[in-house]
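for the recovery benchmark. C-alpha cells below, seq after
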C-alpha cells in the first residue's frame, strides 16, 4: 500500500518533517535495517578481533592494513556519491515516467459516453462493451508486468471469472497464435466495434469516430509504453557498478574505520570511541540511497511504496461503467444560478478563511510600480517635425514638449485648434459647435497645411 503523508506536510512549520521520522511503514529504517545490522555485526567482530584476539605483532599488521584501507575511504578513490546520485536520478525519472504512463480510461470513457448514442439496450451494450475491452487490455498488460496483478489473476480463467472477458472472447483470444504479448487484441475489438457502431448510426459522423480512434490510440500507446518499460530496464552493468561501488566502499570501511590504539599516535587515531558514529551515518545515507534506487526501479512489485495496481484496476472499471451507463444523458435540470439577477456578487467564505477576502487581488508584478517624473515624461526624437501632419490621432497626442507629472493632459480639441496668430486663419471652439457638415467639423478640429 502506498504510504501517503501529503496532508501532514501541507503547511511548512517548525519541525514539520520531524513527526515523519518516527514512522515505520514505508520508512528507510524498514528498508535498510537488515543491512545495517549486518554491517554493525561485522564491524564489531573485527573490533573484538583486533582488541582481544591478536598478538602485539599481529595487531601492528592489522593497524597497517586498517590505515591502508582508510586511504581509499577518505580520499574518494571510490566515487560513491557520483555513481549513486546519477543512478538514483535516472531511476526516479524512470519511476515517474511509468506512473504517468499508466493507462487511465477517463478521456476514453468521456468520448464514448458523448459519441456512442442510444438509450435502448443495444446502445447501452455497445458503450459498456467498448469500455470493457479497454479495461481488459490494461488488465492483460498489468498481468505481464505487476506481481500484484499476476497474483490476483494468475490465469485467464480468473480474468473471465472477474467479468473482464467472456468465454467466447477467451476462445478468440486463445485461437490467435502469436509469440508476443497479445494485450492489444481487446483494443482491436474496440476499433472494430466502434466501426460497426458507426455503420449502425450509433456514432453519428466520421468526426466522432475519428475522436474515438484518437483516444483509443492514446490509451493503447500508454499500455505499450508500460510494456516497454518492463522490457527495457536500466542497463544491468550500471546497476552492478553502483552496487559493487557501495558494497566495496563499506567493506573497506569495516577495517579502515576501526579505532586503533591511541597510544601509538597514528594519524587521526588519537581517541578510542568504540562506536563509529559518523561511519554508521555514512552507511545509513549511502546504503539508504542505494535502497531507494532499488525500491523505485520497478514500482510494480509489492513494496510499501509500489503502485496500487489492483486498486487502480478496480477504480478504472467502476468509473468507466458509471460514465458510459449510469451517467449517459443523465443531466440535472438546467436552472438559473444563484447569482442570475446580480451583476456584481461575491462568493461567501467560512469564518476561518474570511481574512483571505481582505487581501487585494493580484494584478501583475508591475501594477504598483513607482514612477518618477522622468518616467512619465514623453520624449520626442530630434527629427520629429514641429507641426503635426495630417489627421493621425497618435501623432497629435505625441506633439508638444511632453506631459509632466501633476499637469493636465491637453485635450484633442486644444491640440488640434491652431493658434490665432497663424497665417492660414483662426479657428476657435465656436467653429466646432457651429459646423454644419462633416467637412466643416473636420476643418474645425484639424488644420491641414497645404504643403503641396
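predicted aa per position
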Amino acid at each position: 500500500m502506498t504510504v501517503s503523508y501529503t496532508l501532514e506536510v501541507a503547511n511548512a512549520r517548525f519541525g514539520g518533517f520531524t513527526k515523519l521520522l518516527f514512522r515505520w511503514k514505508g520508512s528507510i529504517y524498514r528498508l535498510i535495517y537488515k543491512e545495517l545490522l549486518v554491517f554493525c555485526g561485522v564491524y564489531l567482530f573485527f573490533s573484538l578481533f583486533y582488541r582481544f584476539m591478536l598478538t602485539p605483532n599481529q595487531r601492528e599488521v592489522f593497524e597497517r592494513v586498517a590505515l591502508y584501507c582508510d586511504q581509499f575511504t577518505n580520499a574518494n578513490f571510490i566515487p560513491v556519491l557520483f555513481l549513486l546520485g546519477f543512478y538514483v536520478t535516472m531511476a526516479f525519472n524512470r519511476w515517474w515516467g511509468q506512473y504517468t504512463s499508466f493507462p487511465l480510461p477517463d478521456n476514453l470513457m468521456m468520448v464514448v459516453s458523448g459519441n456512442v448514442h442510444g438509450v435502448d439496450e443495444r446502445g447501452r451494450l455497445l458503450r459498456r462493451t467498448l469500455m470493457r475491452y479497454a479495461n481488459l487490455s490494461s488488465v492483460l498488460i498489468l498481468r505481464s508486468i505487476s506481481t500484484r496483478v499476476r497474483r490476483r489473476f494468475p490465469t485467464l480463467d480468473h480474468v473471465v471469472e472477474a467479468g473482464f472477458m467472456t468465454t467466447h472472447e477467451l476462445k478468440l483470444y486463445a485461437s490467435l497464435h502469436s509469440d508476443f504479448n497479445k494485450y492489444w487484441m481487446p483494443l482491436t475489438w474496440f476499433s472494430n466495434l466502434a466501426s460497426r457502431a458507426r455503420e449502425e448510426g450509433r456514432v453519428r459522423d466520421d468526426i466522432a469516430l475519428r475522436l474515438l480512434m484518437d483516444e483509443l490510440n492514446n490509451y493503447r500507446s500508454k499500455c505499450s509504453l508500460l510494456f516497454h518499460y518492463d522490457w527495457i530496464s536500466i542497463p544491468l552493468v550500471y546497476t552492478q557498478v553502483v552496487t559493487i561501488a557501495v558494497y566495496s566502499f563499506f567493506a573497506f570501511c569495516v577495517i579502515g574505520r576501526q579505532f586503533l590504539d591511541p597510544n601509538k599516535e597514528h594519524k587521526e587515531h588519537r581517541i578510542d570511541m568504540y562506536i563509529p558514529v559518523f561511519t554508521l551515518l555514512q552507511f545509513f545515507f549511502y546504503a539508504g540511497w542505494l535502497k531507494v534506487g532499488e525500491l523505485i526501479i520497478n514500482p510494480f512489485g509489492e513494496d510499501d511504496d509500489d503502485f496500487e495496481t489492483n486498486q487502480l484496476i478496480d477504480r478504472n472499471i467502476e468509473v468507466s461503467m458509471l460514465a458510459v451507463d449510469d451517467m449517459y444523458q443523465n443531466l440535472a435540470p438546467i436552472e438559473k444560478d444563484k447569482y442570475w439577477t446580480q451583476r456584481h456578487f461575491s462568493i461567501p467564505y467560512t469564518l476561518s478563511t474570511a481574512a483571505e477576502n481582505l487581501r487585494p487581488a493580484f494584478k501583475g508584478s508591475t501594477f504598483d510600480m513607482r514612477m518618477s517624473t522622468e518616467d512619465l515624461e514623453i520624449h520626442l526624437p530630434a527629427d520629429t517635425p514641429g507641426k503635426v501632419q495630417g489627421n493621425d490621432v497618435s501623432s497629435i497626442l505625441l506633439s508638444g514638449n511632453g506631459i509632466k507629472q501633476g499637469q493636465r493632459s491637453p485635450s484633442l480639441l486644444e491640440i488640434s485648434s491652431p493658434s490665432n496668430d497663424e497665417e492660414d486663419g483662426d479657428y476657435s471652439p465656436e467653429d466646432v459647435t457651429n459646423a454644419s457638415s462633416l467637412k466643416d467639423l473636420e476643418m474645425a478640429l484639424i488644420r491641414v497645411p497645404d504643403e503641396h
